[in-house]
């Protein structure tokens, strides 16, 4: 009997979004060669269309039964939930790019590089083979290095790109090195097959498995910018164009988190109680250091970089709990990770968009550019308040629900110390988040209350000096003062992000319910 | 969505309306804030009627969201629950009343009035919700909201060192909420059986719950095999640390005098009147209500700390040169007595502690209102720079004297009935500590009368040109609060009735 299974496998079911985005990327690449540079907005529009189709495919298969094709690509709960998140994030980033490309010169490669990065991210979410996963990661990473350094005339952009390239390459190498040990002792690259042998591997070669775990954790730590592997993040975020910064903070992190989740659970679940507590150490260090180094930061984009380091620390908390939680309650860990990443995506993209508008209007990325924002544009100030309060974890915002979820799972799994650190560092983070809010609602020095006059004047002088310095440094790269009109794209993006942050905060069931229906394993 | 829900939410709605109003006059913002606070107070009064002689707890629950897969495959329900029982009813009424009076006391032409009324209404909503909360989640969210709102009131409005005071306030009370949250979440899971020595033992039908009434019914009766004593000790230690910071008890008290010194009068009325009663409320609700054995075990420690606070507060108040710092230390001294009453853990002691919370709240607010009104005219709170005010402003000076007499426990005032009950309870349980504590009563007379004598009698230090006696808005607050002090002093059954039910419940589980 001939086995025809290879011929009718469910290729489109497992790889639908991936294929659609790949096709879109090639179409955009070819069109970019054919069309002149003025057509940037059209290219972004086509890319958005393709991603929207891919998102529709992913949503259509949201509750599909688990399927495996070619022993490599899989559709399951992890794959479908995070594919949807990755595609939504891509839409937001492209939307952001649409506005950015109107005001700044954007390299023609920008759009299709972004799409290829998304292909890599989708592969990281749906592949179940170490080689495919690694190729996906490299596709995402290499595209990101170029995207960061694409403003070749800006020294900061090139510096950030170079740092990211060096650190990221070391991270990839370390990760690959860790994978080779597993391949060496098991003889497989397929996660399912290694997972079935995991217990006996641990019994025979505990040292090798532990070494491989630590190396892979370190490699992923670089990609996730966990402390102590976070050094590249502030420079890369600061140097990159704002949409790319938002991309690095959200999409690249989501992809790395889903890959970490899949690899660690398949390879090491049998020994979770032994090894997964290392995640806890990394999470604790990341939360503490990430929040403390953010305290004195005045540059808004660098602050968001440090804040995203700290936020990654919060997401690492459930990872540490897999070992201590009974299998029946693993659903809560998956749900809490997914919910937090959804919440984090909306608030972070929104915050980057507001920072982009403010820094464009004031010509500086110093936090004092926020002073008087409430007087200049109250709706923008309200949206920024929503994002910042959500990042800080205040009630009625998505960040609050996400933190409550992670916190309660931690208490449940007797990870009280992690829960306490999570909460204590959140309190610390109030300081710098509220610092932004204070500036937003502060009056500009000219019309300020007499008591504030001295301080405000000094701040304004500093701000003015910063304007001159930054303006001089970035002069060739900044477009001539744009007309205030035609901001509809970015304003609608901010409105969507703020709305999503509030909806997830006020009616969390809108996401918790679909997540609860997923069969994670 | 019943009565207690709207009690907490109506000032919140007022806050949102204030924020949404386009640029208006001071009067418009004040009207909105007053309306929100007045509705809350009216609902509190309605709750008294509904509570009635039968002592029905008034309960309203609103399901918010569900965290799936939290408990052996089950779910954890996150609700907004509001319950008014014997303990919370008088306190929530006090909070609503002081919220309204604080809004009345806001001076005409308050700068940045929109922001001011927004934060103030938010704070009133938060403290109402703190005392009306029926589950641990709602309670904690309300505590955090109160922290946030009062931080901004301190940070934006007040004296020259207000920023330093605000950040000290934020750091101290933020630290306190870390311990509070650890304790609350720990109690949640301990009551459900998560910390059983031999692995999880489902002890709560339907999985873990935040509901305070169910936790209080479950927690004290759990066997050691489900909730070992070591877990209870750690939980209680976390609660005690949270309470000491929240309540500004020595040695973690230093944020309160600074905050009171820098804040303006309406904020001080809320801060000293209700916000600093949160700690004692936590100790009664979650300490005595859920971990009674530990309150007994820590009894001597609590009693000794209570006496130390009573005496330290009194001595420190004596040394103060600023009326606001004096009142702050006086309130710390009162709270020492509350601690003594709770440590005694008998009917008189617990009831005395609850009376003391209400009485100290009213009297502290009254003292802040009167001294604030005096300072508005003389321009200073500094005791050495005041003198002879009885001649220039006889009415305000008279009320100041009355507030001081109430505060030191004159018969027929609320201070007297509170002190006498606490001491009866204290002498039964800890006679030696209570005997030393009596010294505090004498000291409170010394520091208050000394300050009064220097402020109102003697030669007039400053010129009295154009000093009007109390204005209408000040009359309202002062007369209402004075009336309450007398009412409770003459007719203690008013709040003794609801408190009595809670005392019997607490003694039922721990006596």
Automatic annotation (TrEMBL), chain A:
One of its GO terms (molecular function) is quinone binding. The chain crosses the membrane at residues 12-35, 42-63, 75-98, 110-128, 164-185, 205-226, 275-296, 303-325, 337-358, 379-402, 414-434, 493-516. Its main location: membrane. Pfam families: Proton_antipo_M. It catalyses: a quinone + NADH + 5 H(+)(in) = a quinol + NAD(+) + 4 H(+)(out). One of its GO terms (cellular component) is plasma membrane. Its EC number is 7.1.1.-. The keyword Transmembrane helix applies. Keywords: Cell membrane, Membrane, NAD, Quinone, Translocase, Transmembrane, Transmembrane helix, Transport. GO terms for biological process: ATP synthesis coupled electron transport. It is found in: Cell membrane; Membrane. It is a multi-pass membrane protein. InterPro entries: NADH-Q_OxRdtase_suN/2 (IPR010096), ND/Mrp_TM (IPR001750). NDH-1 shuttles electrons from NADH, via FMN and iron-sulfur (Fe-S) centers, to quinones in the respiratory chain. The immediate electron acceptor for the enzyme in this species is believed to be a menaquinone. Couples the redox reaction to proton translocation (for every two electrons transferred, four hydrogen ions are translocated across the cytoplasmic membrane), and thus conserves the redox energy in a proton gradient. NDH-1 is composed of 14 different subunits. Subunits NuoA, H, J, K, L, M, N constitute the membrane sector of the complex. This is NADH-quinone oxidoreductase subunit N. It comes from Alicyclobacillus cellulosilyticus. The gene is nuoN.
TrEMBL record, chain B:
Keywords: Membrane, Transmembrane, Transmembrane helix. InterPro entries: NADH_Q_OxRdtase_chainM/4, NADH_UbQ_OxRdtase, ND/Mrp_TM. The chain crosses the membrane at residues 6-26, 38-62, 82-104, 116-133, 139-158, 170-192, 233-256, 268-286, 298-319, 326-348, 354-375, 396-417, 429-450, 475-494. It is found in: Cell membrane; Membrane. The keyword Signal does not apply. Pfam families: Proton_antipo_M. GO terms for molecular function: NADH dehydrogenase (ubiquinone) activity; NADH dehydrogenase activity; ubiquinone binding. Residues 133-440 form the NADH:quinone oxidoreductase/Mrp antiporter transmembrane domain. The keyword Transmembrane applies. GO terms for cellular component: plasma membrane. One of its GO terms (biological process) is ATP synthesis coupled electron transport. It is a multi-pass membrane protein. Belongs to the complex I subunit 4 family. PANTHER family: NADH-UBIQUINONE OXIDOREDUCTASE CHAIN 4. This is NADH-quinone oxidoreductase subunit M. It comes from Alicyclobacillus cellulosilyticus.
């Amino acid at each position: 009997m001939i086995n025809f299974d290879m011929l009718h496998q469910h290729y489109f079911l497992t790889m639908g979004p991936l294929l659609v985005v790949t096709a879109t990327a090639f179409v955009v690449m070819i069109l970019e060669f054919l069309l002149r540079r003025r057509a940037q907005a059209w290219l972004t529009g086509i890319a958005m269309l393709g991603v929207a189709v891919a998102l529709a495919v992913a949503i259509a298969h949201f509750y599909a039964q688990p399927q495996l094709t070619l022993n490599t690509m899989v559709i399951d709960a992890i794959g479908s939930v995070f594919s949807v998140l990755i595609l939504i994030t891509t839409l937001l980033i492209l939307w952001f790019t649409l506005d950015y490309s109107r005001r700044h010169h954007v390299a023609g490669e920008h759009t299709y590089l972004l799409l290829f990065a998304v292909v890599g991210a989708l592969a990281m979410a749906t592949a179940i083979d170490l080689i495919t996963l690694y190729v996906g990661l490299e596709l995402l990473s290499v595209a990101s290095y170029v995207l960061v350094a694409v403003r070749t005339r800006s020294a900061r952009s090139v510096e950030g790109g170079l740092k990211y390239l060096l650190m990221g390459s070391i991270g990839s190498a370390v990760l690959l090195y860790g994978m080779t040990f597993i391949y060496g002792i098991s003889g497989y690259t397929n996660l399912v097959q290694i997972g079935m042998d995991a217990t006996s591997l641990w019994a025979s070669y505990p040292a090798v498995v532990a070494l491989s775990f630590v190396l892979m954790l370190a490699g992923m730590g670089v990609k996730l910018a966990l402390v102590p592997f976070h050094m590249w993040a502030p420079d890369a975020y600061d140097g990159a164009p704002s949409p790319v910064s938002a991309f690095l903070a959200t999409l690249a992190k989501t992809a790395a988190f889903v890959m970490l989740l899949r690899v660690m659970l398949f390879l090491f679940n049998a020994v979770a109680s032994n090894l997964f507590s290392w995640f806890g150490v990394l999470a604790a260090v990341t939360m503490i250091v990430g929040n403390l180094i953010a305290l004195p930061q005045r540059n808004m984009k660098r602050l968001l970089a440090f804040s995203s380091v700290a936020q990654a620390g919060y997401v690492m908390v459930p990872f540490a709990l897999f070992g201590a939680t009974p299998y029946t309650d693993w659903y809560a860990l998956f749900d809490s990770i997914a919910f937090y990443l959804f919440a984090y995506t909306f608030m972070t993209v929104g915050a980057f968009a507001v920072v982009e508008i403010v820094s464009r209007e004031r010509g500086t990325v110093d936090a004092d550019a926020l002073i008087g924002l409430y007087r200049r544009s109250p709706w923008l100030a309200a949206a920024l308040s929503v994002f910042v309060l959500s990042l800080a974890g205040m009630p009625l915002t998505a960040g609050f629900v996400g933190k409550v979820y992670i916190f309660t799972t931690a208490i449940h799994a007797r990870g009280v110390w992690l829960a306490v650190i999570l909460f204590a560092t959140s309190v610390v983070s109030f300081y710098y988040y509220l610092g932004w809010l204070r500036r937003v609602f502060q009056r500009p020095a000219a019309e300020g209350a007499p008591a504030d006059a001295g301080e405000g004047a000094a701040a304004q002088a500093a701000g003015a000096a910063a304007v001159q310095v930054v303006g001089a440094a970035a002069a060739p790269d900044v477009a001539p003062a744009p007309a205030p009109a035609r901001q509809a794209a970015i304003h609608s993006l901010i409105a969507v992000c703020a709305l999503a942050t509030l909806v997830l905060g006020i009616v969390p069931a809108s996401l918790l319910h679909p997540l609860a229906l997923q069969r994670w394993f | 969505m019943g009565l207690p829900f709207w009690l907490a939410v109506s000032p919140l709605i007022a806050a949102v309306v204030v924020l949404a109003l386009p640029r208006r006059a001071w009067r418009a913002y004040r009207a909105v804030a007053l309306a929100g606070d007045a509705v809350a107070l009216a609902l509190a009064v309605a709750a008294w009627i509904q509570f009635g002689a039968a002592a029905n707890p008034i309960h309203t629950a609103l399901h918010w969201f569900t965290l799936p897969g939290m408990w052996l495959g089950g779910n954890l329900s996150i609700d907004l629950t509001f319950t008014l029982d014997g303990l919370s009813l008088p306190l929530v009424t006090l909070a609503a009343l002081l919220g309204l009076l604080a809004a009345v006391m806001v001076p005409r032409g308050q700068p940045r009035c929109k922001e001011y009324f927004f934060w103030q209404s938010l704070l009133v909503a938060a403290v109402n919700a703190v005392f009306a909360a029926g589950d641990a989640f709602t309670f904690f969210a309300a505590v955090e909201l109160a922290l946030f709102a009062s931080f901004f009131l301190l940070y934006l409005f007040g004296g020259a060192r207000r920023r330093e005071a605000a950040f000290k306030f934020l750091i101290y009370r933020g630290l306190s909420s870390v311990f509070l949250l650890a304790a609350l979440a720990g109690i949640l899971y301990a009551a459900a059986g998560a910390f059983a020595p031999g692995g999880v033992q489902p002890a709560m039908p339907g999985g873990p719950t935040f509901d305070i009434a169910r936790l209080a019914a479950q927690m004290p009766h759990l066997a050691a095999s489900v909730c070992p004593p070591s877990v209870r000790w750690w939980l209680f230690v976390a609660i005690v640390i949270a309470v000491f910071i929240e309540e500004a008890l020595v040695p973690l008290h230093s944020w309160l005098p600074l905050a009171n010194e820098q804040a303006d009068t309406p904020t001080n009325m809320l801060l000293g009147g209700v916000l600093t009663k949160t700690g004692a409320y936590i100790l009664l609700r979650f300490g005595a209500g859920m971990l009674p054995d530990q309150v007994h075990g820590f009894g001597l420690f609590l009693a000794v700390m209570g006496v130390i606070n009573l005496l330290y507060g009194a001595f420190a108040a004596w040394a103060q040169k600023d009326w606001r710092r004096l009142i702050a230390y006086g309130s710390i001294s009162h709270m020492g007595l509350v601690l003594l009453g709770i440590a005694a853990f008998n009917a008189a002691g617990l009831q005395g502690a609850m009376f003391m919370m209400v009485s100290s709240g009213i009297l502290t607010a009254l003292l802040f209102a009167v001294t604030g009104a005096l300072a508005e005219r003389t321009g200073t709170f500094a005791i050495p720079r005041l003198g002879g005010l009885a001649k220039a402003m006889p009415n305000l000076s008279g009320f100041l004297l009355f507030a001081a007499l109430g505060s030191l426990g004159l018969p027929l005032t609320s201070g007297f009935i509170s002190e006498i009950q606490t001491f009866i309870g204290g002498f039964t349980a800890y006679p030696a500590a209570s005997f030393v504590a009596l010294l505090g009563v004498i000291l409170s007379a010394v520091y208050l009368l000394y300050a009064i004598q220097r402020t109102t009698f003697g030669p007039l230090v400053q010129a009295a040109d154009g000093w009007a006696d109390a204005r209408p808005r000040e009359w309202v607050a002062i007369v209402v609060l004075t009336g309450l002090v007398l009412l409770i002093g003459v007719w203690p059954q008013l709040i003794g009735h609801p408190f009595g039910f809670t005392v019997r419940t607490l003694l039922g589980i721990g006596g």
